[in-house]
Amino acid sequence: MLSKKTKYGLKALTYIARSKDDMPVRVSVIAKSEQIPQKFLESILLTLRKAGILGSKKGKHGGYYLRNEPSEIKMTDVMRVLEGPIAMVPCVSLNYYEKCDDCPDENLCSVHKLMIQVRDNTLSVFRNTTLEDLSNE
Amino acid sequence: MLSKKTKYGLKALTYIARSKDDMPVRVSVIAKSEQIPQKFLESILLTLRKAGILGSKKGKHGGYYLRNEPSEIKMTDVMRVLEGPIAMVPCVSLNYYEKCDDCPDENLCSVHKLMIQVRDNTLSVFRNTTLEDLSNE
DNA sequence: GTAATCCCTAGTAAATTGATAGGAATAATA
DNA sequence: TATTATTCCTATCAATTTACTAGGGATTAC
Prior knowledge:
The structure is a homodimer. By secondary structure, chain A is mostly helical. Helices cover 50% and strands 6% of the residues of chain A. In chain A, helix 1 (4-18) packs antiparallel against helix 4 (75-83), helix 2 (27-34) packs across helix 3 (38-50) and helix 4 packs across helix 5 (110-127). The radius of gyration of chain A is 17 Å and the shape is elongated. The mean pLDDT of chain A is 96. The structure holds a DNA duplex. Chains A, B: It comes from Algibacter aquimarinus. Chains A, B: InterPro entries: TR_Rrf2-type_CS, Tscrpt_reg_Rrf2, WH-like_DNA-bd_sf, WH_DNA-bd_sf.
């Protein structure tokens, strides 16, 4: 299952990408429009900012804005920040590889083989999708 | 993340598929060989039996066996039984569709669009993979 | 200086996961 | 029939994760 955090994060990014003017977008505006609990959304956008995907401006007239063009923001990056590793098991993760304790030989492991295929397919979607694609209506 | 339940279930199915003779395979044998907690594995195999994927024989010399040829057992079925819906959000699930409360129009929802693509790719892997593929070494 | 905003830490209730416990039911066999 | 080996079933539980909420600090525009 996709977590609410990721779902909310993607919706918020889309909202920001769709907002035409260059003003930073306030959390409260996104929360209201997308029906997301505001405090929860705050923490999500903070995560995206710390990951370098969003920038922010504090104080009155503050808010969040994209650090790059929507067409430059890949879903691989967004998903890794929000949802964590893309692979369903650590032993097929490119960025967070971990050997299974129980598995003597990965090449003989049926789960490993299957999950590599799933990973490659999911990855190809995320690699070929940018925030621009998401924000096109 | 793939649950341990699914991981164990896949490994157990593979083990049974690889065992050449037609004797039912005991839970204890699989548990020992694959390093799976036996009681937990019991409950998993029970689930697979109730779903019609495994058959069982009780009492002495009892155990579990496949109800069909490995080449007839599709990963779509196995994964749905063990892991639940293949889609990451209910609003793109073929078998367990549910509308999102918050989403006024699915066609405008960026999450929806992205998750349809992920679902289709994952589904194509599971549809084209059978237990026979997993059990080939 | 005041209002509006993001920033940060902490906490928390509910759900899910990954088991374990204990025994009932069933079947083979001596 | 008694014994043993197995699956079957229900209940329980600790740890973790999820989806928030609370409260206030820091910063900026006006």
